[in-house]
Specification:
Elements (H helix, E strand, L loop, with lengths): L6 E6 L4 H11 L4 E7 L8 H4 L14 E2 L3 H4 L4 E4 L6 H5 L7 E4 L9 H7 L18 H5 L4 E3 L3 H15 L3 E12 L14 H4 L4 E2 L9 H12 L5 E7 L6 E9 L5 H12 L5 E3 L8 H4 L5 E8 L4 E8 L3 H15 L16
Parallel strand pairs: 1-2, 1-4, 2-3, 4-5, 5-6, 7-9, 11-12
Antiparallel strand pairs: 7-10, 8-9, 10-13, 12-13
Helix pairs in contact: 1-12, 7-9
């Protein structure tokens, strides 16, 4: 948000949690210049009123939230759509092909119209390149892309953990179980009774279990692409008493002869050269606290020989690598910038 002759940026949904995280990251980006911010319910108010953590950022106090007008968004080189699911498609349709658009919502993640109809309802808008650069082949698809669908936070954590094991043929694709905990910011900023502090503090609760969570088909889609065959999974999400973070533990039945050393080698091969995905030393297990505020994902794996299953755990910040940071990472690729520009792999502690 500093005055500079850079790539012009507009952020929709700038009054929400993902929008606020985007603006925090963009404030330190040397090539992206935020010129327009929109927030439907807060239009006409100063940005820092909705995002007080940006006070002190050069230029932030000069920005006022606007109504979302595609004609004004089209003046930017890069548009981030940080909107509730189902709201991005209509806006994207009115933006010129020359504009780079990164959607943080679900509108363009799913390739299967039937999956969209089953889990979201309404008309399927189509699919865009999937914005998880660490998956096989995805980095090349994102370089120079004009339209990008940023993944969901749960699917990011699950795909990073299990995709290399499926690609290496070390686990079975039809017996995958995911249990993942999220901080309350994953539900957005709209007030809800179940997200009140007095409801969340001191409690961990399950929700949307039994295969009904909307991220289920997205997980199956990315994992199936890695495996080269259909992957089915059971997913139980948990709400944890923390503001931000994802801790996902995924188990899958081991293929005959697969060993713990092979599991670890597959993850090391996939991520040893990656700037944001880190396989932890043996015996060290991921913690959401270690990834807070970073664009990193921490990964660990074990072979449970008692039941013949691989166990892989991934921690990440749902607002950063699970949303805004990943979106910036993808935008960097789209503009031919170093992928790490404006992003940190280091968490905040304590």
């Amino acid at each position: 948000m500093v005055e500079r002759m850079g790539i012009s940026v507009a952020v929709t949904g700038a009054s929400g949690y993902a929008g606020g995280e985007l603006l925090r990251l963009l404030a330190g980006h040397p090539d992206f210049e935020v010129r327009r911010v929109t927030g439907a319910s807060s239009a006409g108010t100063p940005l820092v009123q909705s995002q007080p953590h940006l006070v002190g950022s050069p230029g932030a106090s000069a920005l006022t939230l606007e109504a979302t007008d595609p004609a004004r968004l089209a003046e930017a080189d890069l548009v981030f759509l940080a909107l509730p699911h189902g709201q991005s498609a209509a806006i994207a349709a009115e933006l010129p092909d020359s504009t780079v658009v990164v959607d943080l919502g679900a509108d363009f993640r799913l390739a299967d119209p039937d999956a969209w109809a089953s889990y979201y309802g309404g008309t399927h808008a189509g699919s865009w390149p999937y914005g998880l650069p660490e998956l096989p082949g995805q980095r090349a698809a994102l370089q120079g892309a004009r339209r990008i669908a940023a993944p969901g936070c749960y699917p990011t954590s699950v795909a990073l953990g299990l995709a290399p094991l499926l690609a290496a043929g070390l686990v079975e694709p039809d017996d995958v179980v995911v249990v993942a905990a999220s901080g309350t910011s994953g539900a957005g900023r709209a007030p809800k009774q179940n997200l009140l502090g007095s409801e969340v503090m001191g409690a961990v609760s399950a929700y949307s279990a039994g295969g009904v969570h909307r991220h289920t088909p997205e997980m199956e889609q990315s994992l199936s692409a890695a495996a080269g065959t259909r992957v089915t999974l059971g997913f139980t999400p948990l709400l944890a008493p923390m503001a931000r973070g994802i801790l996902a533990t995924t188990t899958a039945r081991l293929r005959p002869g697969a060993t713990a050393a092979q599991l670890r080698a597959a993850l090391a091969t996939a991520y040893d050269s990656e700037p944001f995905v880190h396989l932890l030393p043996e015996g060290s297990w991921p913690s959401t606290a270690s990834t807070l505020g970073s664009n990193s994902a921490h990964v660990q794996v074990a072979a449970d020989e008692h039941v013949g299953r691989a166990v892989v755990t991934v921690a990440l910040d749902n607002l950063c690598k699970g949303a805004a940071g990943q979106a910036v990472q993808c935008a960097n690729l789209a503009f031919g910038l170093p992928e790490t520009t404006g992003l940190s792999a280091l968490g905040v502690a304590p």
